[in-house]
Design brief:
The complex is a heterotrimer of chains A (about 325), B (about 400) and C (about 375). Chain A is mainly α. Helix content of chain A is about 75%, strand content about 5%. With about 375 residues, chain C is of the alpha/beta class. In chain C, helix 8 (about 225) links the parallel strand 7 (about 215) and strand 8 (about 235-240). The chains are: A mainly alpha (about 325), B mainly alpha (about 400), C alpha/beta (about 375).
């Protein structure tokens, strides 16, 4: 029991931190522009693919360094030439634009790299078990993932709250015109934030690619979950995104690890149904079966009872 | 102004005459697809264009309506129920309405991002549930039915696709008529008001929430009808009809066609169906072209194709529409050239065969001359377009200014 | 697609065609794995006068096609269409939903599980088995049948896990692997395909678990390359026709020719060749391309494959019977690798066609002509 709990917690942590890397970029972008970037997960995918291509020639570490930068530049360009143009047509247009972009990027990835799974491998130097507990190994690579994610969070926190540029960014988020009148180049700041947010997503892709498989559907699989996190955490709140990421990561992990389900509940109540009962699918439902869709259930519940999310600041 | 009666009669005539003009099996099949897409797209426009509610899960009502409709078909086949299959789309519509009433009860409280996110969550939940609750949803193979077992209508048993077309066309006409009617009712007008300024709408005594709820239910009803039409046409409904991709596609349809105009989704549905059916036969990359077209439309034609056409209203009023013909031609030709060159380049990079066939010309992908030629064509096309934009712009401005004799309407 | 085009070219079109010099034309129709799109493409095929449809991936699509074709054939006598199914393994297609116009050229799930459970039963070291799969009809068939068959062959084997997960939704299989480790399993059985398959295998291997993984689809299409070194001698696959060692020079020639023409692809489904050859043989035998005649000729046909094996199309349910192999993912003894990776499948065990024959619940209604 303890072994399952321990590893479930560890797995949840790894997933949660990875999700946070994605959610943090999305939250920053949302705080800045009030628009949820549907293409955010697509930048994640691009990060993985670029890193795959780079690492095939120059090794994993070159990919780790270069791929996020390329993705960040792409993001900045998208903001400058795409989003800014669409901005004047309203929020709906911006959302639809990012939606179209996500669709387009998925097609482009298939065009350039093909549809099959890519053989993107972890670096050999990290290919050893960090420790072995209860018969299961915890690979050093996952430890590396945790390390990078934590480093990002700490770096982001200190940059935003302590450094000068961070304070300017925070000000530009809430009072763009004031900041502009103080002489700062607000559009440039916007572009920079979008670029950094995208680079973060790309970095998440670089790290997650070897573990979560690099294939054209990877953006869709993760994309919706990231939205759920951002909304549950509270639109615009970085700390909220952090809590929500961990919460969802751990929730999924525990749900899968447990074996409880409707049969146990029914047994508790002393009720049983025939196999041919019309709602049989419901009575045989187990928690692991629905674990991947629990975040959506949480999303709907949260939006009904507390639309601002856990720590939400920005109300539509 | 063209009287409305003329427009509606014209619409009816077109619907009736189309299968006579295009009577191949493939054409009828495409026409059927268009009918479904038109009703679905119009229902989405009620939500987004009229009500200002962006939904990422509208396929839920389409799919649920469709599933109920197929189950009805199965019940007719096994004589648990017995009624004419022409009512099947109504069955779909009613179930869609029911679902919308249930989900709308909690999801329409707020508009904007919150609403969009709830719709996304619900959409994902229901799509995922459809693979778990296999009794109603039939698992990944979906539910199949047969539309020929109902009581024949004047000897028609709907075995042939063209018979289904006439049924679909009838329903398209009815649905379009009622959706248009909705826009003219106080409910429809209030939906517009709530979209633009909910606070003000409340001040004149209407509950924004209730208006949104009504609009939502109406949209669900018509989406369900579209689902029923789908069930009639394909005789199978699967999880795919509920999922985010289908929701995304109807968003694309409505947006490209033009939100804010009633005819927008109709145009969008027609264009997209054509691209979907015909283009996919010529190239594997049609989805990518669709994506590019979508992004470009959002950026440069935010009011869609319908909006683009309507932009010419002023020029038409002034009677100066003809003056735009030549400038459009001057810009259009190099643009077309650039487009063809670009597409040829893209297709050639993707082809794996020895020779590359494009528009009847054979090219050798391994020869650099072919690449240079195509590249030059594309560049010439694009530069030509850019250079000619200036004259188009000035022509546009002069077409939009009232004529100097002061009379705008002749 | 490439395999069937190449097979048509290699065997027939390059040698003068069939039926006195008519070339075979393979018309590709992309159904995007969607039942709806399948219907649309079917109508297009009918519009173009195509009467034989080869279809493989996705049992859902095969089911749709089956219903659609049955309806179409009933409503349009004289314009029937034949469905040659080379890969959809839902047993129902040759059982409750069997159809005169459908022929299956792949062993179905239950037949494959027969050989798989035989192989597992032979292994004394296995005492606990963990079953995990995608939550849909095929995954459920794998689960139910494995449990039943293992019970029968090795009642001492304990099923320590029977897990389902939604298709394509699981990002990270590590939590599932935690459960596998905790259950102390000696082997894993899964019917997963695609990204789910490779993710699952990688997670199991990454966690240090060295137990055998028995699969249906863990090879080719980039999966072999991604599994690579780490999965050596650990991942098993049940399939028909060996990939290595190849028994006849004839078949080696074919593979080499295919590779020369398509260096980035592999011959992943030799049964496509078998299907094509048998259909053409039926045409040659009856001198006709009419689907009804072809179907009648295909029934009870025996055919010798490139590998020198005789396979049989049972008339009762239109199911093919051939030998089934269990191969292991390795780089030793591999003459023909997968994904140009150096790794491939090596056959460790097989049972001959006769032993795969099972009863069927099919009661086929034959059209009268």
């Amino acid at each position: 029991m303890l072994d399952i709990f321990f590893f479930a917690t560890l797995n949840g942590l790894v997933t949660g931190l990875l999700l946070f890397m994605l959610a943090s970029g999305l939250t920053l972008i949302f705080s800045m522009m009030g628009v949820l970037n549907f293409a955010h997960a697509s930048f994640y995918m691009l990060g993985a693919y670029f890193a795959y291509s780079i690492s095939s020639y120059l090794g994993f570490w070159a990919g780790l360094l270069v791929a996020p930068i390329i993705v960040g530049i792409l993001g900045a360009l998208v903001e400058r030439y795409g989003l800014r143009h669409v901005h004047r047509h309203g929020h709906v247009a911006e959302l639809v634009f990012t939606f179209g972009l996500a669709f387009l990027i998925e097609e482009l990835v298939q065009f350039f790299w093909g549809r099959d799974t890519k053989n993107y491998q972890q670096p050999d130097v990290l290919d050893f078990p960090l420790f072995t507990l209860f018969g299961q190994e915890f690979s050093a690579y996952r430890g590396f993932m945790i390390f990078i994610s934590m480093a990002i969070f700490i770096g982001l926190y200190f940059t935003l709250t302590r450094s000068r540029i961070g304070i300017i960014i925070q000000a530009a988020i809430t009072h763009p015109t004031t900041v502009a009148s103080l002489g700062h180049n607000v559009p440039l700041i916007f572009m920079g934030v979008f670029g950094i947010g995208s680079a973060l997503a790309g970095l998440a892709g670089v790290i997650a690619g070897p573990v979560l498989t690099t294939f054209p559907g990877m953006a869709i699989v993760l994309g919706s979950i990231v939205f759920v996190i951002v909304v549950i955490g509270g639109l615009g709140s970085l700390a909220g995104a952090f809590i929500a990421s961990l919460m969802i990561g751990l929730l999924q992990s525990y749900a899968i690890a447990s074996d409880v389900g409707m049969p146990d509940l029914l047994e508790l109540l002393g009720v049983s149904f025939e196999r041919s009962h019309p709602l049989n699918d419901l009575w045989t439902l187990t928690l692991p079966q629905i674990a991947p869709i629990l975040p959506f259930l949480l999303l709907v519940l949260m939006l009904i009872f507390r639309p601002t999310g856990l720590l939400g600041k920005r109300e539509e | 102004m063209i009287p409305k009666l003329a427009i509606w009669s014209g619409f009816l005539v077109i619907l009736l005459v189309l299968p006579q003009l295009f009577d191949s099996i493939l054409a009828i099949s495409i026409l059927n697809q268009m009918c479904i897409a038109v009703v679905f797209g119009l229902s989405y426009n009620m939500l987004l264009g009229q009500g200002g509610m962006l939904s990422f899960g509208h396929a839920v009502y389409f799919g649920l309506g469709g599933f109920m409709a197929v189950h009805a078909l199965v019940m007719i086949e096994f004589e648990t129920l017995y009624f004419s299959v022409i009512l099947i789309p109504l069955v779909g519509g009613l179930f869609g309405l029911l679902a919308a009433m249930f989900i709308g009860s909690f999801s329409t409280r707020k508009a904007g991002t919150v609403f969009a996110m709830i719709s996304l969550g619900i959409g994902e939940l229901i799509a995922a549930s459809s693979l778990i609750f296999t009794d109603f949803f039939g698992g990944e193979a979906g539910v199949s039915g047969d539309r020929t077992f109902g009581p024949p209508l004047f000897g028609v048993d709907f075995a042939r696709d063209v018979e289904v077309y006439y049924l679909a066309a009838t329903w398209v006409f009815i649905a379009t008529f009622f959706m248009y009617l909705f826009t003219q009712t106080p409910a429809g007008r209030m939906a517009n008001a709530v979209r633009d300024n909910p606070e003000r709408a409340e001040f004149i005594g209407y509950s924004a929430r209730r208006v949104r709820f009504i609009t939502f239910c109406a949209a669900g009803l018509f989406a369900g009808i579209a689902g029923g039409l789908f069930a009639m046409n394909y005789e199978i409904v699967t999880e795919e009809n509920l999922n985010a991709a289908t929701s995304g596609r109807v968003l694309l349809t409505a947006y490209i066609g033009g939100l804010g105009y009633f005819t927008g989704p109709i145009i969008g549905a027609v264009v997209l169906t054509l691209m979907n059916s015909l283009l996919s036969n010529y190239t594997e990359l049609w989805m990518m072209y669709l994506g590019i077209m979508f992004v470009l439309t959002v950026m440069f034609l935010p009011r869609g194709f319908a909006g683009f056409i309507m932009m010419h209203q002023v020029a038409w009023f002034h009677g100066k529409l003809k003056t735009l013909a030549l400038p459009y031609l001057i810009t259009g030709l190099p643009a077309l050239l650039g487009l063809i060159g670009g597409i040829a380049l893209v297709e050639m990079t993707h082809t794996e065969e020895e020779t590359f066939h494009f528009l009847g010309i054979s090219l050798d992908p391994s020869s650099t001359t072919a690449w240079i030629v195509l590249g030059t064509v594309t560049i010439v096309g694009i530069s030509g377009t850019r250079l000619s934009l200036k004259q188009l712009r000035s022509a546009w401005e002069s077409a939009n200014t009232p004529p100097s004799d002061g009379g705008a309407i002749k | 697609m490439k395999q069937i085009q190449f097979a048509a070219y290699y065997f027939f079109n390059s040698r003068g065609g069939i039926l006195d010099g008519r070339p075979i034309e393979i018309v590709p129709l992309d159904n995007k794995q969607s039942p709806t799109e399948t219907q649309l493409q079917f109508r297009r095929a009918v519009a173009e006068g195509i009467q034989i449809i080869f279809q493989g991936n996705s049992s859902a699509v095969a089911n749709t096609l089956n219903s659609t074709i049955t309806r179409h054939n009933r409503r349009n006598p004289g314009q029937e269409v034949l469905q040659i199914n080379y890969s959809a393994v839902d047993p129902i297609l040759t059982e409750d939903q069997c159809s005169f116009w459908h022929f299956r050229f792949d062993a179905h799930a239950v037949m494959k599980l027969e050989v798989l459970t035989d192989f597992i039963a032979m292994n004394e070291d296995i005492g606990k088995v963990y079953i995990i799969g995608q939550d849909y009809s095929f995954g459920q068939v794998v689960s139910d049948t494995s449990v039943a068959m293992l019970e029968e062959k090795r009642p001492d084997i304990e099923i320590v896990g029977n897990e389902f997960h939604p298709i394509g939704q699981v990002k990270d299989f590590t939590p599932y692997v935690t459960k596998i480790v905790a259950s102390d399993a000696d082997a894993v059985i899964t019917g997963n395909f695609g990204a789910d398959m490779v993710s699952l295998a990688r997670s199991i291997i990454d966690s240090g678990l060295e137990i055998p993984i028995y699969t249906f689809y863990a090879a080719y299409d980039g999966i072999t390359a991604t599994l690579g070194e780490d999965a050596r001698n650990q991942v098993y696959l049940v399939h028909n026709e060996t990939s290595n060692p190849i028994p006849t020079e004839e078949r080696k020639e074919f593979i080499r020719a295919f590779k020369a023409a398509n260096p980035d692809n592999d011959v992943t489904q030799p049964r496509i060749t078998n299907a094509l050859q048998m259909v053409v043989a039926a045409m040659e035998k009856t001198g006709s391309t009419d689907p009804y005649d072809i179907a009648m000729a295909l029934e009870d046909m025996r055919h010798t494959t490139l590998s020198g094996e005789e396979i049989w199309m049972r008339p009762d349910d239109h199911q093919i019977f051939q030998s089934l192999h269990i191969s292991v993912h390795t780089d030793e003894g591999i003459e023909f690798d997968a994904d140009n990776s150096g790794f491939g499948l090596f056959s460790e065990f097989h049972i001959p066609a006769e032993e795969t024959i099972r009863e069927t619940s099919c009661r086929m209604r034959r059209p009268r002509r």
